[in-house]
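Homework-ish question, so no full write-ups if that breaks the rules, but can someone show me the predicted structure for this set?
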Amino acid sequence: MNNNNLKLSNILMAQLNPISGDVEYNKNKAIEAIKKAKEKKVNLVVFPELFLIGYPIGDILTRYPYIAKQAKKALDEIANHCKDIAVLIGYPEINTDKFGKPYYNSVALIKDEKIIKSIRKSLLPTYCEHNDYRYFEPWVDEFESRIFTLNGVNYGVIICEDGWNDFDFFEKNLYKVDPIKEIIEDIDVLICPSASCTRAKKEQLKHNMMKHCAKKHSIKYIYVNQVGANDELVYDGLSRMYDEKGELTAMAKPFEEDLAIVNLCDGGKINPLPKGLELTLNSQKEFSLDHKPDLERTYKAIITAIKDYFNKNGFKQAALGLSGGLDSTICAVLLADALGAQNVYGISMPSKLTSNESKNDAKELANNLGINFLEIPIKDMFDLIKDKFSGMFDEISKNWCNRYTNSYTNDNIQARSRAMILWGIANEFGALPIATSDKSELYMGYATINGDMSGGYAPISDVVKTKLFALARWMNENRERKNAIPVSIINKPPGAELAIDPKTGKTLLAEDALMPYEFLDEVIWRIENLNQSKDNMLEQEFLYEKKNKIDKNTKLNWLNKFFKRLNTALYKWYIVPPGPIIDGRSINKTEYKQPIISNIDYSN
Amino acid sequence: MNNNNLKLSNILMAQLNPISGDVEYNKNKAIEAIKKAKEKKVNLVVFPELFLIGYPIGDILTRYPYIAKQAKKALDEIANHCKDIAVLIGYPEINTDKFGKPYYNSVALIKDEKIIKSIRKSLLPTYCEHNDYRYFEPWVDEFESRIFTLNGVNYGVIICEDGWNDFDFFEKNLYKVDPIKEIIEDIDVLICPSASCTRAKKEQLKHNMMKHCAKKHSIKYIYVNQVGANDELVYDGLSRMYDEKGELTAMAKPFEEDLAIVNLCDGGKINPLPKGLELTLNSQKEFSLDHKPDLERTYKAIITAIKDYFNKNGFKQAALGLSGGLDSTICAVLLADALGAQNVYGISMPSKLTSNESKNDAKELANNLGINFLEIPIKDMFDLIKDKFSGMFDEISKNWCNRYTNSYTNDNIQARSRAMILWGIANEFGALPIATSDKSELYMGYATINGDMSGGYAPISDVVKTKLFALARWMNENRERKNAIPVSIINKPPGAELAIDPKTGKTLLAEDALMPYEFLDEVIWRIENLNQSKDNMLEQEFLYEKKNKIDKNTKLNWLNKFFKRLNTALYKWYIVPPGPIIDGRSINKTEYKQPIISNIDYSN
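A: Not a homework solution, just the prediction itself:
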C-alpha cells in the first residue's frame, strides 16, 4: 500500500434512509448519491447492508419473491451510472443451487458500469430483532471473494454481523469463523456495510469492538450504517472510519441522512455523538437511576421513529388524549417536535374523577407546545354505558355466577370512551391516534385494552417510567422552548385517575396499585440485562433497598405481584401497537416473542 | 436384527399435550406415562420433541435461562422412574462451549435410571412458525451418537426437521446434510420425536415423505408428535409407524392425547385420519372451492385450539357478539362445542341498521346451540356518541382542514360500541371476548380496530370466507345436533350492516365493498401458495372467471383494490389477537412478519 494511493482514495459513506421493500425508491436514492459522489471526485461509494430493500425486511422476500428480481434489475440500472466510479451496494441475491436458503445477503461490487461480483454475508444474526437465517444462506467458503483492489488499495468487505465475532474481544462467540481473520492478511482497508439499529449501551460496545479490530489488525476500518426508522427499528447512522491505531478519523451524523466523504489518508469530518452517549458503558452491569447519559439518544431516536412512521405510511397528523399525566405529556412533546405542533391535536377528556389540576395541566401543556387543544368531557358516555351495563350484568348473572365483587369495569369504561373519541377523530380526519403506554406499565399489564393501550403507534412503549421522568426534565432544559412541561406534571405521583382508593378516598396512585417505580424498573432491568430469576432478585440488594428501608416480606410481595401481573400482561404485549425499540432489550414484538400460554416457574 | 427381538419390543408413543415453559407440569405428565408404560410391559417410551418445555417456546429460553436448568433437574427426576425401561425425551440442553448458540435441541436417552446420552438435532428449521436457529446450535458431527441398541434392536434417532431433507424426495433441499443417510446403514428402526403443527395439505406431504423414507431405506419408521395447542399452533398428534415396505402399521389418534403402544413386529392400532384428509394433496397446485376434504381437520383443529387456549390460560367462559352473520355464527358453534354451551354468551347488539332477519337469526342460532343469549340494542350509545362527535368534529375542522366527506366514522362507532359491551362483560365476569374476523376480511383490513377485530382470541382468523361457508354446511350435517345454523344465515350474502349502500338504499354488502369472495380467496391462495405477483394473476385465468364473465378491466380493478387494501391492512395484522393457524400459509403473527412500512411494488 502506498500513501499516494491512499491520498487519492475518497470514499463516500452513503448513510441513507431506505423504505422497506420499496426497491424503486431506494434505487433512486442510490443513483442520486452516486451522481453527487461523481461531482465530488469520489472513487468508491458504499451503501448500507441490503440497501435496495431496506431493513427490516420481514418475510417479504419469501412471500413476494419477485422483489429479488426487482432488486437485480435496479442493480443493472445503477451500474449504468457507474462510469469512473466504484460502488458497493447491498441487495438480496438469489441462490440458484439445489441446497440452501433461497437468498444470500449480498453486496454487489459495481465498477466500469459492470457488476463485477457479489460478496456474501457469512454470519447470519438470528436473535432479538435479527432474523437473517430465516431467508439467507450463510457463505463460509472462498473468503478471498471478499477482496478487491481499487487504485492500488486492497479492500476487504464484511457485512454487519461478519464483524461481530472477534475471538479475543468476545468471551463467547456465536460462530466458529471470524471472516475478518480470514482476509486480513491481504487487505489494507476493511469495509463494513451495515444495518445496525440503535439500542441502549450499544454504541459503546460497537465503538470498542471496531477500535479493537482496527488496532489489533493495524487496518483502516470503514463502517457504513443505515439511518432512519422502519416500524419498530431505528437506525442511528453514525457511519465512521478508524485508522490503523484504532483512532476515530471520521463520523457521520447521528439519526440523519449524511453523504459523508472520507479520505483514506486524511479521514473526514467527525460529527459528535448524541450527548452523554460516550458515558453509557460505565455502569453496564449495574442498575442505575441516572438516565442522563442516554437521554439525547432516546429523544432523537423516538423523534426519528415518529417522523418516519408517519411520513413513510402517509400520515401527517396525530391525535392523543392529554390526561395531565406524565406519559401523555411526553408523547405530546415528542409528537409536536416530530410532526410540528399544528399537526397534533391534544384532547383532554375528563371524567368526574379527573382533578382540576390535571385538567389545567393538560391545557397549559398544550398551550406551551402550541398544539391544538380541545376539552371533551366523557361524563355523558360514562354515565350512559355504566347504566346500560348495570342492567345487562344483572341479567347475565342469572346464568353466570362468577361476577367479580371488585371489577375494573368502570375504570375501563373511561379509558375505552377516550379511545373511542380518538379513533373517531382518526376516522374523520385521517389522523393517527397515539397509544401512550410506557414500558414499566406494559410489563405490568397496567393499560386498558381498546383504551390507552390502543393507537396507531406507541412512541414510549420501550421507555421505563423512571427514565420518562428524567426525559421530561431533560426536554424542559434542552428544547428551544424551555420548560414547556408544567413542573406540576413532573412532580405529581402517577395515577390513571380511573378509580378511587378506598384507603385514601382519593384517586388511586399507580405506585399503590403496583409498586414503587424505582423498584419496578430495576426488576425489569434485571430480567432484561441479567436474566435473573425471582430467587436471584431476592438474594441481591436493589438500589431501592439502599435508599429505603423495606422488609424482606414487602420485597417478596412486590416480586410475586410483578411475576403474576407479567403473566397476564403477555396477551397485551401481543396486541400492543408498534413503537420504537429504544432500550437494550425490549418486549416489542419485532424483538421479543413469548407464548401467551407459558406457565413459567420464575422462582429459579 | 432378529424377529424375536422385534416381537419382544413394545414402544409407547407418548403423544401428549404439554404447556409451553411449564417444566413441572410436563415432567409430571411424562412420569405418569412412564408408569403406565411399565404396567403394559413397554421397553421404550418416546416423547415428542423438546417435550419438557413444549412447543412453541418463543424466547423463553433466552430470557429465562434457568428454565433449561429446571429441565435438567426434571430429567434427573424422570431417570429415577426408569428402572427396566428406556425413555427418549426432548429437552433443551445447555451448550457449554465457547462457540455457538446457548442450547442444543436434544433428546435424552434414559436407561437403568441413568441419562445415557443426549442426541442433538442437526437441521434447525427457521422459517414460517419455526425459529429453531434463534436458540439452538446445529449438531452436524458424530452422527453415530444418534444410535443406540436395546434388546438386540438398533435404533437411530432423528429429531423432527432432521427427517425432512431427503435428497430424492425434495426437489430443493434447505440443508446439505441428510442425517438419516448418515446413520441408516447401522440401524433397524428410525425414531423421530417431533413437534409438527397441523396445516392444510401437510398431512399428505408428511405421509408421503415418511413412507418414501421407510421404503427407500427398508426400515421401520416411528414418528411421535406433540398434540394439543399453545397459542396459535395446533398439533394434530397422529403419531405413527411405517414398516420396511413403507406401509402404515400404526397411527395414534388425531388431536387427542394418546398413549399408543406399537410392537415392532406386529404394529399397533391404526386410528383414522380426520375424514377427507387423504384427498387433500390432489389439487395441491390448483385453487379449488371444494373445501370438503379439509373440513373435519379444520373443525377439530379449531376446537382443540379454543379448548387449550381457554384451559391453559385459566378461562372458562366466552362472550361474543351475534350479528346473525356467518363469522359470528361459526364462532358461536365452535365455542359451544369447545367450551360447552353453558359457558358461551351470545349477545345480539342491533343498531338501527340491523335487519329483523339478522336479529331473528341470531336468536334462533343461540336457541339451537343452547348458549346463553341477550339482546342489547346499541342505539342509545350510537346516538349519544354520534351527536357528541358532531360538535367535536366541527370544532376540530376549524384547525384541521382535511375532514373526509365520506368517512367510516359512523360505521365504526357501531362496531366499537359492541366491543365496549363485550369487554365490559369480560371485566365483570372474567369471560374472554371473541374476535370474529375471518382471513379473507383481515387480508382486506375489512374489520374495525377496537371493534369486531378485538377480543381475547380470534378462532377463524386463518380461515377464508368460502371455506367458512363450507364449514357451516359441514357442521350442520356432522354435529350431533343437525342444522343448528339457520339456513338463512348461510344463504344470505355477507355484509356488516354498518352502512347504507347509496346505490341500493339497503345495507352495504361485503362483496360490493370488496369483491366477490370466490375471487378474493383465490387471490389470497395465489399469494400464499404460488407467491404470484399482480401481473402473474392478470395473465392467468381464475376459477371465478371460468364460471362468470368478467372483463379484464374488472379483474384489474379488483386486483388493484386488493393490493391497495392489503397495504393498509398490515397494521391490523400487527394488532389482531392470536388465533389458530389452520391454512397452508397464514398472516398470523406466529408465522408471518411483514413490516407495516413496506411499499412493495406488487405488480411484478
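Now go work out the reasoning yourself. Hint: Chain A has two domains: 3-269, 292-575.
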